[in-house]
Design brief:
The protein has 157 residues and is α+β, with helices and mostly antiparallel strands. It contains five helices and five strands, in the order H-E-H-H-E-E-E-H-E-H. Strands 1-2-3-4-5 form a five-stranded mixed sheet, with helices on both faces.
Length: 157
């Protein structure tokens, strides 16, 4: 089957709790390893938020080969926008349109919510993803540093 035919049979749908094991596996590909149990907890919280959407790309054989997480945000200095919080495609599936289909699902979701802008951040070390976003008409707007501070045992997984 050609890549084009395979993508015609690809289904992008809203994630479910049952997707947690595969979402966790793919999260590790991004460099964020997490157990199935923790991912179940995270998905349960996120799927309950109307301002968030998680989509998975599934092959006809029911294999999840990618996922994306997006959130509508109201930001004082920027207004209301949708931010893609995560996007990953399984290594053997890259370059075949899976990521594009996931991004298109986020864009449709954002438009349906009346949100007119989608923002995505891409780590500078993920150089293969930068041309991908540019091919989808995303424009680089800035480079920045990211900081994190752990607050101890009160963190939720």
């Amino acid at each position: 089957m050609s890549d084009e035919n395979r993508m015609k049979n690809l289904v992008v749908r809203r994630a479910q709790i049952a997707d947690a094991p595969r979402v966790a596996e793919l999260s590790a590909v991004l460099g964020y390893p997490v157990t199935r149990e923790i991912m179940e907890q995270r998905l349960e919280r996120v799927l309950g938020l109307v301002t968030h959407a998680v989509f998975v790309a599934e092959t006809p054989s029911n294999e999840v080969v990618g996922w994306t997480h997006a959130a509508e945000q109201e930001i004082l200095e920027a207004g209301c926008l949708c931010e893609i919080r995560g996007l990953v495609v399984a290594e053997g599936q890259r370059g075949q349109g899976v990521g594009r289909h996931l991004i298109e699902s986020v864009e449709r979701w954002a438009r349906a919510r009346g949100v007119g802008e989608v923002l995505v951040r891409s780590n500078v070390v993920r150089i293969e993803s930068h041309p991908f976003y540019e091919r989808l008409s995303y424009q680089r707007i800035k480079t920045q540093h990211a900081y994190r501070k752990h607050l101890g045992s009160q963190d939720r997984s």
